[in-house]
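Notebook B, p. 112. Complex prediction, attempt 2.
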Amino acid sequence: MTTNRARLIPLGGAAEVGRNMWVLEYADEILILDCGVMFPEADMLGVDLVLPDITYLRDRTEKIKGILLSHGHEDHIGAVPHLIGDLGFPPIYGTRLTIGMVSAKLKERKLLDQTTLHTIDDRQSFRVGLFEVEPFHVAHSIPDTVGFAITTPVGLVIYLTDWKFDHTPVDGKPTDIDALARLGHRNPLVLITDCVRVESRGYTPSEATVGEAFDTIFATAPGRIILATFASNVSRVQQVIESAQAYGRKMVLAGRSMENISRIAFDMGFLKAEPGTLIRPHEMNSYMDDQIAVMCTGSQGEPMAALSRMANRDYPHVKIKDGDTVVFSATPIPGNEVSVSRVINNLFRLGADVVYGGTSGVHVSGHAAQEELKMLLALLRPTYIVPFHGDYRHMVLYRKMVLGMGEQFPPESVLLAEGGSIMEFDAEFGRIVGKTHVGNIYVDGTSVGDVDNVVVRDRQMLSKDGILMVVVSIDSTNGNIVAGPDIVSRGFVYMRQSTDLIEATKDTVRKALNNDSSESNTTVDTAFVNRKIKDVVSEFLYRETRRRPMVLPLVMEV
Amino acid sequence: MTTNRARLIPLGGAAEVGRNMWVLEYADEILILDCGVMFPEADMLGVDLVLPDITYLRDRTEKIKGILLSHGHEDHIGAVPHLIGDLGFPPIYGTRLTIGMVSAKLKERKLLDQTTLHTIDDRQSFRVGLFEVEPFHVAHSIPDTVGFAITTPVGLVIYLTDWKFDHTPVDGKPTDIDALARLGHRNPLVLITDCVRVESRGYTPSEATVGEAFDTIFATAPGRIILATFASNVSRVQQVIESAQAYGRKMVLAGRSMENISRIAFDMGFLKAEPGTLIRPHEMNSYMDDQIAVMCTGSQGEPMAALSRMANRDYPHVKIKDGDTVVFSATPIPGNEVSVSRVINNLFRLGADVVYGGTSGVHVSGHAAQEELKMLLALLRPTYIVPFHGDYRHMVLYRKMVLGMGEQFPPESVLLAEGGSIMEFDAEFGRIVGKTHVGNIYVDGTSVGDVDNVVVRDRQMLSKDGILMVVVSIDSTNGNIVAGPDIVSRGFVYMRQSTDLIEATKDTVRKALNNDSSESNTTVDTAFVNRKIKDVVSEFLYRETRRRPMVLPLVMEV
C-alpha cells in the first residue's frame, strides 16, 4: 500500500448479507469500525449466523489499535465475542449502552476479563493510536447511537451508519445536527453512510408517531395487548411502558432476549418505569385482561420466539384468545415475510385482533429516507461518499440520487464498494484499488467456521431430492458380494411405498458389480467400485424418477 | 347430507397454500369449480407443485357432472392434467382462451383425446346436470376471465374469483357490471369471492396506467428494454407490443412459457401485433439496441427463468450490459422477495438500469382492492358470503370490512371456510357443518403424490444439520464386528477437517456394541443394534457439537 494514503475496507461475506465491519488503515495503524454479525439467507441451510471474514487482518493483528462500536445492534456488535480473540483483544470503544450490551455478550463467553472496554461520551473526543476520534449523537432505533468523525493524516473520515433525522425521538436526543454542520465546515474527505432506505421518498416519520398509534390502541383494546418488536428496540419498549402507564395497564416482558436487553437498559437508566408497572408473567392472573400489556420477541416470525409460541398455544402464561390485540411493531426483514404471515394467520385463527403493516402506524424505520440522505450531504459536502448498509441496488440508487444533486458531486465521488473492496484515499485521490478475500464464515451450533461452503452445498442438495445410500460388503480376496446391497434412503421416496424401485436399484448394483468382478477378479479397488455404484445408481434413478438424490455408496471389505 | 341443501367445499391443502378447487354439490350431482395447482412454500423442500386433495371426491366420481374453469391461470387450471383421470374425465367448460390453454396442457400429457372440452361464450348460459350456469365477463390480468352465476334448487350461487373493476382494460372488455347488477336483483344466496387485496385501500389502478408507464420508458430508454412479467399476463404482453410499435422497436419473446402461452394467444387473436414487430432472438443482431424490446419470464426471480439467466450472463442472445433497461412488471409473490432482490442486484452490477417496485407504475394487480370489494357487495347483496383466494388474515379482514358496511350483512353472513370446510346452504340456512380430509399432495419430478409428508419432513431435517451414517458388518453367529464401523456424513461437518470427531464417534459405536455382545452373545437382534447405535451416536454428537444430524445406522450381517 502507498504509505501516504488511508485505506478503507468493508469486510464481510457476499454483498447481499451486509458488510458490518470496516477497516480504517493508515501506515502501521488499523482502526476497526463495528464488528457485527449477518443473518443467513434462506439457502444457507441450518446456519445460525454469518461472520465477517477477517482474512485481511490475520497477519496485521499487531496493527489493530482499537474497535469503535457505533451502537448496540447485533449487526454491529454481534461478532465481537466470536472474533475478539483472533483480533488479539484490541480495546473496544463505545457509548454506555453499547458497552453494556457487548459486556453481557463477552461475559456469557467468559471473555470479559481479557477485554479492555472504554465507555465514551458522545461529546468527548478521544485518541486511538494516531487517529483522533470525535463521536457525535445520532437518532436510531436504539438509544446511545453515535457516528464517528475520525481525523487521519490524509483528511477527515466520517463513519455514519444506522441513523435518521428524528426531531422528536423517544429519548429526547435528536441527531446532533449542529455537530454535523460543524463537521461540514471542516471539508470532510470521506463519508461512509447507510443507504438502505433510498427507495423511500421523503422523510422517515418520527418515533413520536408510533407513540400516538400505541395510545389509540391502548385506549380502545377490549382485552390484553401483546406487542412484538426487536428486543434491542429499547425506545419502542419505553413507548409501550408509557402507554401502559397512561392507560392503567401492567406490563410483562416475554422472551429471553427481551428480558436480557431490557434488564441492561433499566440498569443503565435507558428504560424507565414507575414502580409497580412491570410485573412478572405469573402475576398476570391477578389482573383483568384490560389491565395487561405484554411486550415480546417474535416480530420476525422466528419459530422459537415468544410470539410464535403464543400463536401455537405453546407459551406458558400467555395463550392467545378472543379479545386479545396483537401488535407487530416491526417490518418483516426480507426473507421473513412468509413466516410473519403464518404467525399473523394463526393469531387471527385463535381469535386475536392483529395490527400490522405499513398503514397501521405502529412502526417506523430507524433509517433515513431520501430527503434525509440528501440533507446529510448538503450539511457535510464530503469529497468522497461510500454508501453501505444496503443491497447493491440501494447503492446504485443512492449514487443516482447523489448525482441528481448537481455538479458538486461528480460521478467519481460515489464509490460502490462491495465486501472486500480496498479503497485508498488522500487529499487528491479516492478510488477502489483492489480486493481482499472475503467469504462467508458460518456459525452453526457451538463452533465458528466449521460449517463451510461444502457442508452448506451438501445441505442444499439433500434438501432438494434427499439421499440414497448403497451399502455392500465384499470379500476382499475375490471381490464377491458377501452381504447386501442394502439401500437406505431419506428425503427421496417414501421407502415403504417404493419397494419395487428399491429392489430394481439393488439389481442394478448387483449387475454392475458382477461385470466388474469378471473383468478383474484378483484385486478389489474400493474407490473404483464406489464410483461405479454411484454412476449406475444415479443414472438409473434419474431415468426412473427424474430426480437426482445424492447417491452415497459405501463398500465394506470383509 | 341433508338432501334439500346445497353443499360447497373448498378443496386444497393447508390454508396458506390456497384452495383453488371447489365442489358444488346438490343431491346426486357435483359441479367442480376450477382445478388449480398451488405453489409450494419455502419449507416444502424440493416440491414443484401442490395439488388439491380430492379425497372427498374419490367415492363420488360418478356424481361429477362437469368442471367449470374461470380463467387460464395455473392456480385455476394447472391441476386438470394431474387429476382429470382420477375424476373420471368429466366434461370441462371454459372460455376460448382458457380452453386453449388447458388443451395445450392435456395434449402435452397425451390426455386430450379422452377429455371433453366445451368452449363457452361469456354471455350465453348453459346447463350442466341440474345446474343452470350463466357466465359473465370480469376484468383480470388474463383475458377471457369469467365469473359463474349458478342456479341451484336452493338458490343462486355466484362464483367470482380473480377479478377487479377495470373500466379501461387493455382488451377493451371491462367487468360486466350490468350483469352483476341484474344478478343482484335475483336475490343471490351465496357469493364466493376473491379477497386477497383487502389490505389495500381504494381501487386497484387500471391496466391503462401501466401502458402510460411503459410509454415513458420506451420514449427515454437509451438501449435495449427487457421486460419481465408472468407469461400468462397476456394483456401486459399486448401493452409491450403496443409500446414497441409506437416507439419503433422490434420485440422478442424469451422463455419457454412466454413463447408457449403467447403462441396460443396469438393463434386465438388475444394478442395482436403488426407484421414485422415480432422477431426471433437470433435476429436481434440486425438491429440497434434502441430498436429492441425483450419480453421474458423470470419476474419472480425463478433461478432457471430467462431473466435470471440473463442476470447471470447465461442466456444465449441476451447478455445484460451497460445501457440496458430492465423492467419488473410484476410484484414478488410472498416468499420470492429475496430471490427477486438478488436478480435486481445482479442486473445493476452488470450495468443495467432496473425499474421495479410500487412507485414505478409498471405493474398493477389483477385483484380488487377494498372499495371494489365493497362495490361488488353493494351490487349483489348476497345472503351469504364466502371470501377466499387469500390467507386466513385476509378472510378475517374481509369479514371486518363487510361488517363495517352495516346491518344488511350480519356477522353470520360471512363464512370463513378453510380447505376442507363443508358448507351447507338453503333459503333458511348457511353454515359450515363439517370438515373433509385435505392434505398436501406434492408433485415432484414426474410423479404425483409419491413425495409425501414423511419425505418432506426428512428433507427439512437433512437441510438443517445434515446426515451421518454408521455402517457396521457383524458376524451373524456371534455378534462380533467383522468390518467397520464406517462413517459417512453429508451436510453435517466437513469430514476432512473432522477426523477426530469421526474417530471418536467410531469409538462410541465400538464401545456400545461390545457391551451388547457381552450381554447376549448368542443371537443378534439387528433392530436392537440399530436403535442402540442411533441413540449413543445422536447423544454423543449433540454433546460434542450441539447439532442434531439425522443419524442412520446400517447393520449388515455377514
